[in-house]
Amino acid sequence: MPIIDLSPIQLFLEELLCELKTIPGGQVADYIPELTRSKPEWLGIVIATVDGHIYQVGDSREKFTIQSISKAITYGLALEDVGLESVLEKVGVEPSGEAFNSISLEQDSGRPMNPMINAGAIATTGIIKHTEGSSRMDRILKKFSDFTGNQIGIDEKVYLSEKETGHRNRAIAHLLYGYGILDREPEDILDLYFRQCSILVNARDLAVMGATLANDGVNPITNVPALKSQYVEKVLSVMTTCGMYDFSGGWIFNVGMPAKSGVGGGIMAVLPGQFGLGVFSPPLDEKGNSLRGIEACKRISNYFKLHLFNVAKSVSASSVRFHDNGKNIRSRKNRSPQQRNILNQQGQRIFLYELQGELMFGASESISKQIFTNIEQFDFVIFEMKRVFNVDNAAILIFAKMANKLVSLGKSVFFTQASHNYQFSKKIKHYFQQPDPSRLFQFVDTDRALEFCEDQIIAKMDQSLIAKPGRKTIADQVLCTGLTDTDLKTLESLAENVKFPPGQTIFNTDDEASSMFFILAGEIEITIATKEKHVLRLGTLSAGQCFGEMSLVNGLNRSANIVSTAYTECLEIPFDTLEGALLTKILINLASHLAEKLNKDTKLLQDAY
Amino acid sequence: MPIIDLSPIQLFLEELLCELKTIPGGQVADYIPELTRSKPEWLGIVIATVDGHIYQVGDSREKFTIQSISKAITYGLALEDVGLESVLEKVGVEPSGEAFNSISLEQDSGRPMNPMINAGAIATTGIIKHTEGSSRMDRILKKFSDFTGNQIGIDEKVYLSEKETGHRNRAIAHLLYGYGILDREPEDILDLYFRQCSILVNARDLAVMGATLANDGVNPITNVPALKSQYVEKVLSVMTTCGMYDFSGGWIFNVGMPAKSGVGGGIMAVLPGQFGLGVFSPPLDEKGNSLRGIEACKRISNYFKLHLFNVAKSVSASSVRFHDNGKNIRSRKNRSPQQRNILNQQGQRIFLYELQGELMFGASESISKQIFTNIEQFDFVIFEMKRVFNVDNAAILIFAKMANKLVSLGKSVFFTQASHNYQFSKKIKHYFQQPDPSRLFQFVDTDRALEFCEDQIIAKMDQSLIAKPGRKTIADQVLCTGLTDTDLKTLESLAENVKFPPGQTIFNTDDEASSMFFILAGEIEITIATKEKHVLRLGTLSAGQCFGEMSLVNGLNRSANIVSTAYTECLEIPFDTLEGALLTKILINLASHLAEKLNKDTKLLQDAY
Predict the structure, then answer these.
(1) CB-CB contact of B384 with B416 (8 Å)
(2) Do the Cβ atoms of A253 and A195 come closer than 8 Å?
(3) N or C: which end of chain A has fewer CB within 10 A?
(4) Do residues A266 and A203 touch, judged by C-beta distance below 8 A?
(5) What are phi and psi of B13, to 5 degrees?
(6) Going by C-beta distance under 8 Å and a sequence separation of 6 or more, which residues neighbour residue B161?
(7) What is the mean pLDDT of residues B126-152?
(8) In the prediction, which pLDDT does B436 show?
(9) Could you give the strand order of the β-sheet that contains B412-416, starting from the edge strand earlier in sequence?
(10) Cα A510–A512–A515 angle (5° rounding)?
(11) What is the pTM for the complete model shown?
(12) Is B68 in the active site?
């Protein structure tokens, strides 16, 4: 037994196949002699997901003619060829409530009711263009092969049989020509139509075609774009209202997926965003749909509760993982007591929203409501996008509109850690009408955005407080508390004075460690690479603070990256020069210093988990 | 200007209102005299979200008669009253392709084609039951008031006018009575029907009714369950195929939401899972739908790209945030070199999947595919559910089936940190057929699950290796490295011997700190509460290790919770008894010890961010 047969979906399909085989009834199509050669016991069921996985049971490789299922694909090609308006002039989109071969034309215009009945499908085929080097038939075959991912062939016998016996379709075509819906000789268009209906497919092909529609028009197996995105919803719409002939209403009621059937015994169904379903069983019910095919789709939909409208609940409430303001949430920048005091007073002017999951209309609307209800309360708003894995079109529009409005009201808006969501970043920029680089930001890191906002608030209260700390001596260093003048002189004599321009990497994670650094002037930044390959900023350090000191006690390689963010001057102290009472004093200072660091990390962990 | 008017949705609706006011045409319904009193310039648009937010512009409070929109709600009540099968015996679900007042009955049975045309709606109203104490009309009014969240009234004049002039409906009712579709005197049923059509609503009521259908049948303003969940998809299905009379196909094609219109000028539309839309504008087009109402819905759908089938892409690929095996991912339990050696050899027998977002059919299918493809590679599989905020029915079914299959194959399955998702936990249990407590687990914490799996692997290789470490003396303590015998004796004399039973809390975060603990025997667990109120296990400590030592250097309160997990014996050393050279030696040991702790935290942070 192949291992994959253990999958719950595969197992379900195997069981379903056995159950369906016992269902009697139906009649193999016999309106053209060639079709009667199909064996009534053939039964194949295939699910193809938008991730490109395929589950198949039964006669899934047995070939048959596509018949009316072709109508949906050719309709897509016609939309691409001449656009929505021109297609609608020739074919409507209303269900006729009548059988597939009814001549449902609008009274005055002669326009067929919809492209899923024969009249509408012939009109649709009449729209298809040829190009230099590609005949109309070549282009139709090419489109089908983009959808299935295979070379496409035609059953010549069925084609000739249809061509010989298709009197009713010939009558329809002449009526359409009379009304001017067809604009050239019907015989050529009918020939295309008969060939298109005689295309050979199997249940697997139908599933992949369905999955291509489910996947916004891109074939999930080959990644070939088979239909332009804007027409996918149109094809699915006519399948929904007209795809199953005069059983379309019952189909949506019971199965709840857009679908199209053919008298060859095939059904192609689509659950948008999820999968395509292909079923093949030749015996038809009295409405011309595959009897066991319909039953298969019903049972799959009911068992897995896949009805289009079975939307259990809104998830918008969960889209805000966390929100708070800058009084409680601080950047990891070290702040002086005066600075902290200002942030205690004014920090609430910074709003922070951590968003998560898939943002859709509902979620964005709800966030926008909160934002504008509290518009008087903040000057800065940070949206952290790190945990957002999808943003739909409605959400992008609402966020862009909101950002525009906020900036026009003098607020600053930040979208942080959005870089993994390229589509979002690009679209926000596209919709952002009055770019004001001082007010709309896409910082890499939430912490940097927080620091920036805090600096603005502090500067507004007291410009002098955001000046970088002045130069410090060795006596001011955090690890030198309690050292005597002699100790300090000794230490200074052991150290080397080193300088780094802004942007210089001082060391990286896993570098060997043989010294530590006391900062005399300037500023450095500590970062680590996370499991998800983001850069996490652990903090910044300025004059009076030290880095690289951990290796003194653990003898291990560097555990973080250090980059200077200003002209930075340090005392570099080689570990092997330290000894005796001086080393002891430094180690004792180091113990309190590390305890403080540990407390900061615990806070970070509490935020993260 | 009220602050909420700044919202992008509110702004869009304001602009839309202005645009629509300039659109001419349409005819206020005049088939009953009372309706002609509506002012053609009235225009109200309301969006009600499933979160209970309401956006309204224009004449959103103007009352009008609900007319045919009532058909959808009464259909829901009929389904609740007698069930799906009995309703389907009386009314079909196929679009008629004809006008609202057509007498579209099936030829032999006389069954109306669908419940959205007058014939079907009269048949539906005929189904409604009365109960002791509640007349049929009481029950209909109660149902409508559950949907709107308001007391419901009737426009008596319109009702009387309909009753007096409704000759065509009276004819339909008698036909239905003749066919046996109505099982009692038509006049009483017609009276109910005329009253039901004369219910007074405003655009806001329609939006809330739509939002109730969008919210799986629960009114999002009052939280009252208005329609049983299993019937919501049925009502939405008939609205989709038949809701807009003979414009239903064009409606789905252009707007792409289930909807129902009424000749009073109202339209109720639904975007499942997201919102309800109510529009009111009396002038009708030639198909009997509100002319500007349709235009409003089209523009809202197109602008925000809300078409039902506008599913940008599958998100299933993002549902696995991370996956790896126990060779690379370890529990935070301290392991001996021999234990580590075994895990280096055998750790890959543990699979860990961190899942995220909303799990649907596609995502679950894809994970199940991976699992079964690699079935030979693992004995343990851990699914961390912490970042999963929704699991739909299809996904629960697939996970439950997969868990059953895995357990039957001798694998152990863990769903960790799933406690926030009560629905998931409950359903997994429900679907789990052969409960085997030794193989299916819902541990609170991923780390505990990892530790459990590691213990199993180690025990299989060498049972003796998972014995707890034996008793340690003071000389074996991590902070006592390099202490002389005299030092050790002094320290022992300062300490108190303390014992804790399993499960005892030794201290909690923020407790005051005046001592530290050296473990002589037993085991304790260190945890912190995270921002999201989960408990994060930082690790376990056993004999020879210490806790509470950080406060010695930072003088702060406790920064974590400590609970004994076995009979535990410690030396408790009061901080204020330590001094001189002994203190110095301990502080130096503490510095290396803290550096090691910091390195562990950095690893945790790298995992988390």
Answers:
(1) yes
(2) no
(3) N
(4) yes
(5) -65, -40
(6) B32, B33, B34, B35
(7) 95
(8) 57
(9) B320-325, B350-359, B380-391, B412-416, B440-441
(10) 125
(11) 0.78
(12) yes
Q: Determine, for residues B234 and A253 on separate chains, whether the beta-carbon distance falls below 8 Å.
A: yes
The angle, 0 to 180 degrees and rounded to 10, between the axes of the packed helices A8-21 and A291-304 is 140
- The residue whose two tokens read 């862009």 is A400
A71 is catalytic: yes
Question: Which pLDDT belongs to residue A3?
Answer: 47
* Minimal Cβ distance to B3: which of A306, A375, A604: A375
* B512 Ramachandran zone, left/alpha/beta (phi>0; psi -120 to 50): beta
Q: Is the ipTM of this complex over 0.90?
A: no
In a 13 Å sphere around the CA of A345, the CA atoms on its Cβ side amount to 9
User: Nearest Cα to A154, choosing from A71, A227, A63?
Assistant: A63
DSSP string, A203-256: HHHHHHHHHHHHTTTB-TTT--B-S-HHHHHHHHHHHHHHTTGGGHHHHHHHT-
Confidence band (pLDDT; 50, 70, 90) for B226? very high
Dihedral pair phi/psi, residue A205, rounded to 5°: -60, -45
Shortest CB distance from B256 goes to which of A215, A233, A318? A233
pLDDT tens column, B388-401: 877 877 888 888 88
**pLDDT of B448:** 84
Tell me what the mean pLDDT of segment B469-478 comes to: 84
Whether B263 is catalytic: yes
Question: What is the DSSP code string of A35-88?
Answer: GGGS-TT--EEEEEETTS-EEEEESTT--EE-GGGHHHHHHHHHHHHHHHHHHH
Amino acid of residue A473: T
For residue B137, what are the contacts with CB-CB under 8 A and spacing of at least 6?
A: B192, B195
Cα distances (Å, whole numbers) of residue A87 to A65, A608, B530, B603:
26, 54, 58, 60
Helix B8-21 × helix B291-304 angle, to 10°: 140
Residue contact A394–B305, C-beta within 8 A: yes
Measured CA to CA, the distance from residue B449 to residue B354 in angstroms comes to: 13
Residue B218 per-residue DSSP state: B
- What whole-number distance in Å separates Cα of residue B71 and Cα of residue B98? 17
Give the list of residues 6+ apart from residue B458 with CB closer than 8 angstroms, or none.
Answer: B339, B342, B343, B465, B466
Q: B97 and A96 in contact by Cβ < 8 A?
A: yes
Residue B93 a catalytic site member: no
Q: Which of A458, A498, A450, A68 is nearest to A245 (CA)?
A: A68
**What residues of chain B lie within 8 A of the CB of A256, using their CB?**
233, 237
Q: Quick count: other Cβ atoms within 10 Å of Cβ B444?
A: 14
The closest of B206, B217, B187 to B262, measured between CA atoms, is B206
Percent of chain B past pLDDT 90, that is, above it, reads 48
End-to-end CA distance of chain A: 42
Length of chain B: 609
Cβ–Cβ gap B51/A594 under 8 Å: no
Residue A26 neighbours by CB under 8 Å, 6+ apart: A40, A281, A282, A283, A284, A285, A290, A291, A292
Among B124, B266, B278, residue whose Cα is nearest residue B212? B278
Show residues of chain B in contact with A372, CB under 8 Å: 3-4, 6-7
Task: Please state, rounded to an integer, the average pLDDT across all residues of chain B.
Answer: 87
CA angle B350, B354, B359 (to 5 degrees): 125
- For residue A303, indicate whether it is catalytic: no
SS3 at position B39: coil
Q: How many CB atoms lie within 10 A of CB B358?
A: 21
Instruction: For A412-458, write each residue's pLDDT tens digit.
Output: 888 888 766 666 767 776 766 655 555 667 666 888 889 889 999 99
pLDDT, tens digit, 9 for 90 and up, residues B401-427: 888 888 888 898 888 887 666 667 677
Residues B478-509 pLDDT 10s:
889 888 999 999 999 999 999 998 888 999 98
